[in-house]
Structures are given as C-alpha cells and as structure tokens.
Amino acid sequence: MSRPLPDVPDVLALGLPRLTAGFDTALRLDRRAHLAVHGSAPRLTEAQATDLAEAVALRGRGGAGFPFARKLRAVGRAARRRGLRPAVVVNGCEGEPACRKDAVLLARAPHLVLDGALLAAEALGAGTLVVGVTRATTEDSVREALAERGLADRRGRAVRARVVRLPERLVSGESSALLRAADGGLPLPPGRHARASEEGLGGAPTLLSNTETYAQLAVAARLGADRYTSTGTADAPGTLLLTVSGAVPEPRVIEAPSGVPLAYALRACGADPALQGVLTGGYHGAWLDTTTAYGATVSHASLAACGGALGAGAVVPLPVDTCPLGETLRVAHWLAAESAGQCGPCRLGLPSVAGALADVLAGGGRGALEAVREAAGGVRGRGACGHPDGAARFTLSALSAFTDDLAAHVLGGGCGRGTAGVLPLPLPAGASAANPESAERLAVDWTLCEGHGLCAGLLPELVRLGPDGYPALADAGVPTHLRGRALRAVRRCPALALHLDKGADAP
Fold first, then answer.
1. Using one digit for the tens of pLDDT, what is the confidence trace for 420-432?
2. How does DSSP classify residue 170?
3. 316: DSSP letter
4. Cβ atoms < 10 Å from Cβ of 183
5. The pTM is what?
6. 432, 451 in Cβ contact below 8 A?
C-alpha cells in the first residue's frame, strides 16, 4: 500500500539553484533571509513586466503551459476597458497526489512567490492578492510571510492580501474552483464560467497563475532576460521544478535546467535503471515506456513530442516488480472518485473507464479492452473542467506504453505480478499514515444482495453494475468527500447487503 508524499519533500538542485537558492542554509527563508539570498525585487510597469515575460518565454507551470505574457496583456486590457482594478491570484492548490513542487516553494520560499505576485499586482494596478492553498503547512507559511511584509486584508491598503484554504482535492486546483471558493462559494468548477482575465475574482479581471510561475517571474525580474535565458533551452529557458517519486529511495523535488535529459534527472534521484515505464505530468499526464522516457528531455515540447507531458511537473518511475496496469487501475479508481459530481460524463463516465480497465485485468478479453477505449472517448471534451480529459489521457496512455502487459491480460492469464501500490495516493477516510490499511471500504454481503442496483445509482464513483446486474465495487477506500453518500447508499440498500468495513488492521 502506497503512502502519501510528505508535505515538503527534500530538495535537490541539478546545477546552480535559482528558485531553491538558499535552501542549503535554511529550512524556510523568512523575509530577512530571503533578501539576503535574492536581494530586493525591482519594480516594473505593465509593459516592462509583459516584455520580460515574453523575452524569457515564461509559461504557466501548473499544467497547461499558457504563455504568461498573454495573460498579463489580457488582464490589463480588460481592466482598462471595464474601468476596474484587477486582482492577482496565486494557485497553490496542488491537488495532484504526486506533486509537491508548489508546496515546497510556499513552505520554504514564500517570499519569492509573493515577490512575483506583488510585482504583477503593482504592474497591473491590482487591488487584491489571493493565495490559494490546500495544506496547513503552506497556509501557515504564507500567512507568516504576509505578516512579515505587513500585508493584510484591510481597507486602505494599496493591495489587500489574503490566504484561502481549500479542501485537499484534485478539483481544488482547477482555476475556476479556486476563484469560486475565494468568492465564498463552493470549491468546485461552475458549469459555465468566463475567462478569469475577463471576469474572475469578484467579477474583476484576474491574473491567475500557478505558484511556480510567479516565483519564476520574480527570478527573471532580478536576473534580467539575458541572464535568465543563459540556462535551459532556446524555446524554454530557465529552470523548472519536478516532483520525483515512485521507484526512488525517497521522493524529492528537484530544480533542473529545462532540457535536461529525463534519464539524468532520474539517475540523480537514485532511480533504478531497470524500469518498466515512467509517468510524466502526474495523473492528468501520460505514461512513457522506458526506452521512450530515456530518450526524452524535460520540457513541454520534448515530452509532448514523444507522447508524454510536463503537466504539473510530476515524474514517477515504475519498478519492474509491479503490474503497471494494476497501478493505473488504482489511480483510475481514485480519479473517478475525485469527480466534482456535477457533469454526467465525468461522474458516470470515469467510473466506467476504471471499471472497464478492471475488467481487462480480470480477463475480460478484447471486449473489455474496447470498452476502455470507448468509455475514455466518451468523456473527453464533455466536462466543466479538464478532469475527464486528463483522466482519459492518463488511462489510455497506459494501454500504449505497456503493450506486453496488456497483451498478457487480454490474451492470456495476466502478467503474473501483483500491484505494489507504487503511485502515491492520499489516505482515504479512516486511514492514517501509521495505519494506511485501516481505510473504510464498501463491502457487500452476497448472501443478502439481490441486485437492486440502487447503490450504483447513488454512488457511481465507487459502485457500478456488472454484466450480471450485481454491484461491482472499486478496489479503493472511501474518500472523505464521498463518505456521506456512501453511508446513504448503505442505509438505502433494500436488502441491507451493503456496508462500510474497516481494514483488517483498524482499531
């Protein structure tokens, strides 16, 4: 059983550190230590900030890789056209269980992130700064950093700054969910939303970007375009942060020049050379077979060209002693349970994707394999956010990367390996780091079950009806946000056959 990554993993710099400068001398750079390491941040006009972002080809580091200069221009134009003061939002809501790079920045170098956000706020004339987080460690660090700067959410301040804490869920990192929560609503994507640059926080034009993006802006402003672009590649200069977990001695966040060979980064983290594949970009990313992964370099363009993804910067090498399709299935079940529950293709489609993959592993043959592809195709492009598209991409990439294992499951009796649980996942309800096996799970008393199917309608994220009309349960613990509906499904079972069980090691 895998355990969640630590909130703030150890950090390794490949080459001269920029974002992680000073980490060798302090666990957290307070305001004084930050200034000693980085110096004061320059002040830039909107035109200067935009030109700088364009000169260093700064792209968003949260997954989409959108050009930052275009965001700056769009927000500035919208603010002038509408006669409103814009807002600046830092998205530090890392909902990907395999990602910790933003948590490291917010916990250890919060002032570098604030430098970039405040630089953009001043350049745009913004009146509000919001930092969205999901963990106590990052919330405490950011609140302390704001206090060290004398920033607060009070009237009369040039910039009113505050921290917003969201639930630790994948959907919390979706930009519209963060904006909705910051405005006092539910931390879920709305069914229909405008571009943040036009109508974001409080209806004002909003510059919303990822934690690392703002830290990169702060570094670029200090170094200038020429020095910033002296490392990395021509189309993606500078450094980037990766979270490396899986088949390594311990998970790490590494800072590396863009364009470094992926194989070099893995070796630096102690990954076993004998791997069967590498997950790139996290659980909305894509699997690469070992040969392809070892030929790739770490950049948006290189990884995309070989079928991978830089995404949110997660890299997970997979050892040879676990079933890669079984590992993918564990995450597919988790992705299904992470649905916001607002869109049918997501709430119903993602459990179908996971269930069809489970059928493949159970010997369902070619029909089950085609069902995976059909279910994945049915959810793409049909959600209120990118979650169904990312989940489908992740699952389908496993079918392309692990063809030998797929053939063994489809045509034979399976690959002969168990599922070790290498891919990190958060602990579900009832579990603890000391006792992860104590998670609550749904169970069926088959002597009572009559196949009414009510449970599948109430809780499709964890229950689906098999070909015989009886419930098939996801091999996963019940997440905290689904516990209420799981209890409702248990209470409404007409035959009283469904119940919540604790793991065997539970107290």
1. 999 999 877 666 6
2. G
3. E
4. 13
5. 0.92
6. no
